[in-house]
Design brief:
Oligomer: single chain
Strand content: 5-15%
Number of strands: 4
Distance between the termini: 79 Å
Largest sheet: 2 strands, antiparallel
Strand order of the largest sheet: 1-4
Helix content: 55-70%
Shape: elongated
């Protein structure tokens, strides 16, 4: 059996053995560059004193960042082993090197960690335990099979024997795709329920929903493509293209979500009403309607003793205002007083 598998692998054109792995390495390095930029943006937008969940999220992100760098370094080590140190020796293309560690094992751990984070987010958002529990079970199950497949490949010691791990690989990637679909569906459902009817708030929620749908569709599609390539083209390495980039897609999806929320909050803060000067007019008393933004801080609106307490970001209150009541007024946030 070993001889037959090795013989089938030797019959594959050399470009189908080396090309997909090189392409996968290029894409992995490209995605790592995006991750690095996103982590830097995340770092710049962290508050000086972040305790509790915020601090835990920060260390979680930095831990994933270090794992991604470690995985990429090991992947590059494999590339040097096959294409530089042993250049011209086609027999070494069958060496397992460190691919058993950096693709099935570390890839499963990273994807599982990201999905567990999203399960926690759904639990915080919905207060529903069973949906988060399902995501946790699926994520831990596919991570377990991914780790098992990595250990099995290490024991086999030959890339020509990857076909013997078909069941484990299939369960791993189908589990990843299933968890992604559940996460995207749950986030969409619960975020839609948060819509309040205020245009600015609803627009921000819609952006977050679109982000979850896009990233969930992307990661689940890549995971399914990995299974398809693994089944249809077992002797060659076409499946390594999605395999080498999948974990970095998960990390990018997480960082995109975190940074997107930070930027949306920053946009909200930049448009906060901090000072308004209304010209005085003593003639032509006219009735008008004004849409007044209410933020986290409390303001007192002077005309006709209208008191507008700010309770939540991106909420709006409509008031009847009269020009005869207008006078220059300074609205200053609590942070500056």
């Amino acid at each position: 059996m070993l001889t037959l598998a090795a013989a089938k692998r030797e019959e594959v054109p050399i470009e189908l053995l080396t090309g997909p792995h090189i392409l996968g390495m290029f894409l992995s390095w490209f995605l790592l560059g995006i991750i690095t930029v996103q982590v830097y943006i995340f770092y710049l937008n962290q508050p000086e004193h972040n305790n509790g969940p915020l601090r835990n999220i920060r260390w979680f992100v930095y831990g994933l960042f270090l794992l991604e760098w470690a995985q990429t370094i090991m992947m590059t080590h494999d590339g040097f082993h096959w294409y530089v140190i042993n250049w011209g020796n086609s027999a070494t293309l069958n060496d397992i090197s460190l691919i058993w560690l950096n693709v099935p094992l570390m890839g499963s751990v990273i994807s599982c960690a990201v999905q567990l984070f999203f399960a926690w987010q759904i639990r915080q958002l919905s207060k529903v335990n069973w949906i988060s529990g399902v995501i946790v079970l699926v994520a831990l199950a596919h991570a377990s099979t991914g780790i098992a497949s990595g250990i099995k490949v290490r024991v086999l010691g030959s890339l020509s024997q990857l076909g013997t791990t078909t069941g484990l690989v299939t369960f791993t990637h189908v589990g990843e795709a299933a968890a992604d679909i559940i996460i995207a569906g749950a986030m969409t459902f619960f975020l839609f329920r948060m819509k309040s009817g205020f245009q600015r708030t609803d627009t921000q929620i819609t952006k977050i929903i679109r982000l979850f749908l896009e990233t969930g569709l992307l990661t689940s599609t890549v995971a399914i493509l990995d299974v398809i390539f693994f089944f249809l083209f077992p002797p060659n390495t076409l499946h390594e293209v999605p395999s080498l980039m999948l974990s970095k897609l998960y990390t990018n999806a997480l960082l995109a979500m975190l940074n997107n929320r930070i930027l949306l909050n920053g946009d909200r803060e930049s448009s906060r009403l901090t000072s308004v000067s209304i010209p005085l007019s003593s003639s032509n008393v006219r009735r008008s309607r004004s849409l007044v933004r209410v933020d986290e801080v409390e303001h007192t609106y002077p005309p006709r003793d209208l008191s507008v307490p700010g309770r939540a970001a991106s909420r709006y209150v409509e008031h009847e205002l009269y020009e005869s009541d207008f006078k220059p007024v300074e609205l200053t946030s609590a942070a500056t007083t």
